[in-house]
Amino acid sequence: MAEAVPAFAPFEVMIERLGARGDGIARHGDAILHVPGALPGETVRVFRDEGSRALCDGDDAIRVASPERIAPFCPVHGRCGGCVAQHMAPDLYARWKRGLLEHALSRAGLETEVAPLVPAAGAGRRRLTFHAMRDDNGVLRVGFMAARSHDLVAIDHCPAAEPGLAGAPQIARLLAEGYLAEQSAAACDIHVTSSVNGLDIDLRGGRSGASGPSAGLRRRLITLADECDLARLSVAGETLVMRRPPLQPMGQAAVLPPAGGFLQASATGEAVLAAHVRDALRARPAPGTTKKKRKPVRRIAELFAGCGAFTLRLAEEVAVHAVEADAGALVALDRAARETPGLKPVSHERRDLFRRPLLMPELCAFDAVVLDPPRAGCEAQTRQLARAQLPLVVYVSCDPVTLARDAALLVAAGYHLETVIPIDQFALTAHLECVAVLRK
Q: Is the pLDDT of residue 362 over 60?
């Protein structure tokens, strides 16, 4: 057993593996320690921080470096709370990322082969959220939140973002200065999205209140939108000015999302996810196999449909009933569907699927269900799917743990977990998208 070490006194540990957040995991006595930035096989000098967390002790803390360590390409890597894996060589990174899904499935008692990690970041993130705050001296800082902290890391560019967001930090600062000065507020968030017609920005926070920004603030922000050549500027989802529609291509359709609405993190990631969903709906038994002939998929229900990222692509081949709780997202989806020629019928329904999941008799009207719930998963809806016994369920998830939990309910009801594909839309972070195909 290791000797007790005084608080904050440095000591050396050997890193055994990577944890779910990308931290190196080590043992010291009876304690399990999480060391940010450390890699398996490394000997690292650390000191205890809080709980199970240990921090590297200085710039020369790595006594024995891993051969799979590479130089990060971002100057704020390790301080910014976004990317956690720029120091990992590609093979190590792919094993770790795929392992997040393997571990989640194993913990849920599910045995299936996990497909290789699919790269899907494309040109980079199309959405960034900047935080702006004034310190005690009134100095404004704009950037990203630090890892596991309420501190702010000021940045002048984000190399993980797509080129269309190159000037976003400077524009975010200009907007924050005007927004906070008018309200005498200390902090706000600036949500920036790249679109085919320029930047789409939504401001959140401050003291605009239930009535929205004052007339003077509206005029100031509209002037800034003109100066910065923004496509659209909104405050808390309320459009102040739309100089050009900030359209997002979704298959053959062009969608105008609601101001401040949800989109997948990257355009490539969205297209890759949709392609894997489409392939699952198209799949037929291989020639010469003894598997029974599958019923063609002609009509599907898509649950948690958002503004149509999957709906509009799938409707190129099958009829889709889209279910979503957000009214603005459904308006955008419906408009795009009506304006896009050649689609199969698209119907929609506004419904909170957490409080009112589609019930078994409703689900039985469809040949298959596609669902893409939030990070918390959708246990209540999954239980209804288990009762309905549809031939095919395609489950898209941004959290391997809740995916595994819900998939286990379907497997217990007789479904076969045919394929699970890890899709690396959130490159170099600890977040992972997955597509699971479950069949009867």
A: yes
